[in-house]
Amino acid sequence: MNIIFLGPPGAGKGTQAQFICAKLGIPQISTGDMLRSAIAEGTPTGLKAKAFMDAGQLVPDEVVIALVKERIAKPDAVHGYILDGFPRTVEQAKALETIAPIHVVINLAVEDEVLVKRISGRRCCPQCGTPHHVERLHGSNVCQVDGTCLVQREDDKPETVLSRLKVYHEKTAPLINYYQEKGLLKNINGDAGLEEISAQILETLEALK
Ligand code: ADP
């Protein structure tokens, strides 16, 4: 199954995608993680993306579309995948239609107020990308997966979070209607416990089999 995880920044797409992918044995394709790796490696894509990301703006459509196209052609993606953070614009969604079929879109809905709180407390592993929250770290600052020292993403700093939310409402939220009209949208309340959300997503996916 080819699945899209849609939702505002901080909705928990990455956390849930990681869990569900492990459960289903399919890869998590996160454009945010791919772009951050590209920046860390200093590739031409990374050089193009950095200023946009640091400012909380979207990276140009053609850059991310090329990344996704290349990634889903890899052998591990033949049995399905979760697209986490892509598409983020109607143009990206239209381009995706020419690359791959999509079977379901999981929309994680969370109010802006909750998002701001979540994002400002987020600390990420620069090695494996796993997001953590200060409240669940209990004073520790290392990744619970691989022990790497956690960092705050440049774009998780308060001054950038508001522009990301604005961009989400302007550019990405229209995809909710877009996929609703195609009959692919499944809404999940993202303002619940992590386990509860995972269970809801799994149940929704099971029902489609
Ligand atoms: P979040 O969902 O918390 O915003 P991501 O890691 O998905 O975090 O994205 C971080 C940043 O990477 C975005 O603000 C944007 O600049 C860039 N980015 C990620 N995916 C896309 C995409 N599909 N289109 C354009 N820019 C993207």
Low-confidence stretches: none
Percentage of residues in helical conformation: 40-55%
* Distinct ligands: adenosine-5'-diphosphate
* Major sheet attributes: 5 strands, parallel
CATH architecture title:
3-Layer(aba) Sandwich
* Termini Cα gap: 9 Å
- Pattern of helices and strands: EHEHHHEHEHEEHHHEH
Number of domains: 1
Radius of gyration: 16 Å
Can you give the mean pLDDT? Answer: 95
What class would the helix/strand composition place it in?
Answer: alpha/beta
Instruction: Report strand %.
Output: 5-15%
Shape designation: globular
The top level CATH class name = Alpha Beta
Describe the structure.
By secondary structure, this protein is an alpha/beta fold. It has a single domain, classed as P-loop containing nucleotide triphosphate hydrolases (Rossmann fold). It is 50% helix and 14% strand. The chain is built from 10 helices and 7 strands. The strands form 2 sheets. The protein has a 5-stranded parallel beta sheet with strand order 2-3-1-4-7, sandwiched between helices. A two-stranded antiparallel ribbon has the order 5-6. A hairpin with a 6-residue loop joins strand 5 and strand 6 (131-133). It is globular. The mean pLDDT is 95. Residues 9-10, 13, 31-32, 35, 52-53, 56-59, 64, 85-86, 88, 92, 155, 164 line the site of adenosine-5'-diphosphate (ADP). The site of adenosine-5'-diphosphate has 19 residues, from helix 2 and helix 3.
